[in-house]
Amino acid sequence: MDLFYVEHISNKKLSVSESKHCLTALRKKVNQKILLTEGKGITYSAIIESIQNGQVIYTNIKSIYTYLRKPKIHIAIAPTKNKARFEWFLEKATEIGVDIISPLICQYSERNKINETRAKKILISAMKQSKNPILPTLNSPISFEEMMKNPPKNCYIAHCQNRKKIPFKKLLVNLKNPHTISLFIGPEGDFSEKELNFAEKIGFVSITLGEQRLRTETAGIVGCNMINLLL
Amino acid sequence: MDLFYVEHISNKKLSVSESKHCLTALRKKVNQKILLTEGKGITYSAIIESIQNGQVIYTNIKSIYTYLRKPKIHIAIAPTKNKARFEWFLEKATEIGVDIISPLICQYSERNKINETRAKKILISAMKQSKNPILPTLNSPISFEEMMKNPPKNCYIAHCQNRKKIPFKKLLVNLKNPHTISLFIGPEGDFSEKELNFAEKIGFVSITLGEQRLRTETAGIVGCNMINLLL
């Protein structure tokens, strides 16, 4: 059964676009059952009570499934020069499972803006499609320096520079129930020496995702999949 | 240093398109060192001896790195309705590491052709970019029935049907040095009951890649990453 997104389940009404998807694309009718989520890990069932001005009004809300992924996965990643590659990352990471995405502006970044409205739509659509009731939090783009002023805990930084790196797999299998894990992925031109020196100085661990040189968006997906798989 | 693709290292000459990449995009000159691969796991170094009719002639070939992934990874996957999604799969699987790709035509397939020339170019480009000296073998599209007449060994089939499935992760960590592992991924409409019955009857193992419902191309990448990571 298809999943619909509501900002607040207690609103008892689908948004105009979700109603359109429900009524026009999926041809749902009054008295039929639908699945709903606020994107916070809970899937609800409800019954379509009526349709008012093209919007679905639902009733009889029941929580039927709770999915709380532990630990929380935070990917801080530089938006790619090519917009489609970053959007592909957003879709795939949501399908695989991610909690927080921070677009990161680095010294060698080739793009420092993203279309947040479009990005949010991609996240909602991927969440619905994958029936994964967790809508990632998409932060506004933040500079590397700004992020370093108040860095999250358990930070890992993936890069291709020739300095000591620990295989991410090895670290993950030895981690003991972390609350949140943050993975930093740089732009096409990689993190700068200065950025890496600073990050390591404040406790970030330099890691490698494997022998290959992965593109930014691929590294994001591979890292996200590794955390989901090994923790 | 950048990697170039040659069909046969003993030819001592780059193709026209690789020469153009080498001379025009990367501005390489006579006497400079380049890296070469036939896509069979070996990276060679060589020196540009001369340029004849726009083609790079190289000499002083040395094998500098051998990468033989074990086991061989074979992904048999239905081409997606949207061409770009299948092409993303080709690129990402090559970056992550795959040996054989078989486009699989199933009962519910929405596309039964691929542009093989374009697909091969994507594979070569992803191989060069990721510095992973293995060029996947791309088979011609094959129907599910035809594939079943002579199925590979160690076959796993991923689907969303409500029948007994074993978590792929659990199977992989218990596998003992397989020579080849084949993962089958169906189209948007999934494998049919008939296809699954037949596959299971001849020894395929039904597997799940996780709790989420992944798109065809995402399942291909996640499965490929799991095999690389856990074997």
List the helices and strands and how they pair.
The structure is a homodimer of 231-residue chains.
Chain A: E1 3-5, H1 16-25, E2 33-37, E3 42-52, E4 55-66, E5 72-77, H2 83-96, E6 100-105, H3 116-130, E7 137-138, E8 142-143, H4 144-149, E9 155-158, E10 166-167, H5 168-174, E11 180-185, H6 193-201, E12 205-208, H7 216-230
Parallel strand pairs in A: 1-2, 5-6, 5-11, 6-7, 6-8, 9-11, 9-12, 10-12
Antiparallel strand pairs in A: 2-3, 3-4
What does this structure look like?
The structure is a homodimer of 231-residue chains. Chain A has 231 residues and is an alpha/beta fold. Chain A has two domains: 3-66, Hypothetical PUA domain-like, domain 1 (Ribosomal Protein L25, Chain P, Beta Barrel), CATH 2.40.240; 72-230, SPOUT methyltransferase, trefoil knot domain (Alpha/beta knot), CATH 3.40.1280. Helices cover 33% and strands 27% of the residues of chain A. Chain A is built from seven helices and twelve strands. In chain A, the strands form two sheets. In chain A, strands 5, 6, 7, 8, 9, 10, 11 and 12 form an eight-stranded parallel beta sheet that branches. Chain A starts with a strand and ends with a helix. The A-B interface holds A 67, 88, 92, 95-97, 129-132, 169, 210-215, 218, 221-222, 225-226, 228-230 and B 67, 88, 92, 95-97, 129-132, 169, 210-215, 218, 221-222, 225-226, 228-230.
Give a short overview.
The structure is a homodimer of 231-residue chains. The first copy, chain A, has 231 residues and is α/β, with parallel strands linked by helices.
